[in-house]
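User: Please check token order:
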Amino acid sequence: MAVTTTTGQPITLELMRGNRGRRRKERLVRAAFFGAAALSLLISIAIVLALAGEAVRWLMAIDLGWLWGRGGSRGRTSSTW
């Protein structure tokens, strides 16, 4: 028994491949989505690198003891806020 479509045509390899124009459009959409994903990834990496660069620049500009010493909270503890 041959497998047929709803129109009664037998299912062939050519029929399963679909319309050439539709495949072309799907490739274009796939490429557009891939490009958007790649651009999004590059922008995210650029943001992280910019933030990391600013953090390193800030850490180089201050005395690191200030972060853990008395200067960090100006001598106050959380109970005296």
Summary: The two ends are 84 Å apart (CA to CA). DSSP finds four helices and no strands in the chain.
